[in-house]
Amino acid sequence: QSPVIAVLLTILGTSGTFGQVFNLSSAECFNPKAVAAINLFMEWSAFNEDASDGYCYDNHGSGYEGGQNFISCGGCMKFKCTSRPCDDRDGSKFKMFWVLESVATQCCQDCEGNIFPPNRVVSTTSLGDKCDTLEQAICKTSSGLAGSGTVGTIEVSYTSGNCCLDENTWSPAGTTILEKDTCSARTCMQGRPAQWDRQTKYQGGCGCCEYQSALLLPGDCQTLLDGRQACCCDGEMVVTVEQTVEMQSTPPMA
Question: Rounded to an integer, what distance in angstroms lies between the CA atom of residue 23 and that of residue 19?
Answer without folding.
Answer: 13
